[in-house]
Amino acid sequence: MPWFGLGVWRVENGEEAVNAVKAAIKNGYRSIDTAAVYQNEEGVGQGIRESGVPREDIFVTSKVWNSDQGYESTLEAFEASLKRLGLDYLDLYLIHWPVKGKYKDTWRALEKIYKDGRVRAIGVSNFHVHHLEDLMQDAEIKPMVNQVEFHPRLTQLDLRSYCKEYGIQFEAWSPLMQGGLLENEVLAEIGKKYNKTAAQVILRWDLQSGVVTIPKSVKEHRIIENADIFDFELSNEEMEKIDELNENKRVGADPDNFNF
After folding, report:
1. Is 96 assigned a ligand-binding role in the annotation?
2. Neighbours of 146 (CB within 10 A)
3. Residue limits of the NADP-dependent oxidoreductase domain (predicted)?
4. Helix (H), strand (E), coil (C) string for the chain
5. Catalytic residues
6. Contact predicate 175/185, CB 8 Å
7. pLDDT at position 212
8. What structural domains does the chain harbor?
9. pLDDT at res. 129
10. What pLDDT is attached to residue 95?
11. Residue 105: predicted pLDDT
């Protein structure tokens, strides 16, 4: 699984999605993260096909939406996602949110899909520690990934420690807090030293924290800029300074309290 990829939440299906995916792949990205509820899987699939890069070189993630959770309905939702993407298999399939009373049956479906060789890895998204503990009581296969909201204002230390202990790869959605940290003085100051933007500092901090990250952009210059984070390294002191920005502040819903 690549450490860095393109997220396509709120990217419009059709031309916008196709062009964003092609621009990312052209500029070295090899991981694309979508979901059924984003309603842009067709565009993502088209962008992958038109990129000219072999399918096996690209890591594709999608997710089962809440209304499709349950055993049979998840199997159907997976097939529908593959069809929209125009792919034979996925690299990673996630449960999008921990829908109470359903996510265990949903997980059984993911285990079947995995055993059948239709997906190379399975995982969850937006799961707290207690959701993971509950799931793993009955699971045959433990989740391989947990994709959650993660940025300097929400560092999720307990959850990260738990995932590390159980060998579950931690992945960040909304790593830039939907743009809410781009004017932050601490990040800007650190960036000056390396001639990097606040966004690049955050994304570098993700990688050095052992967190897979998938920033979203549809502009090619921004897609290129986001990925330009492999030529510098933050010091321990700088890493700690960024950690200290934590306020346990979310821009998305709390996985213990969502109504969609």
Report:
1. yes
2. 27
3. 5-247
4. CCCECEECCCCCCCHHHHHHHHHHHHCCCCEEECCHHHCCHHHHHHHHHHCCCCHHHCEEEEEECHHHCCHHHHHHHHHHHHHHHCCCCECEEEECCCCCCCHHHHHHHHHHHHHCCCECCEEEECCCHHHHHHHHHHCCCCCCEEEEECECCECCHHHHHHHHHCCCEEEEECCCHHHCCCCCHHHHHHHHHHCCCHHHHHHHHHHHCCCEECCECCCHHHHHHHHCCCCCCCCHHHHHHHHCCCCCCCCCCECCECCC
5. 38
6. no
7. 98
8. 6-182+212-217 (3.20.20.100)
9. 98
10. 98
11. 98
Residue 210: predicted pLDDT: 98
What are the structure tokens assigned to 114, written together? 């995995």
Residue 122 — φ and ψ, nearest 5°?
-130, 150
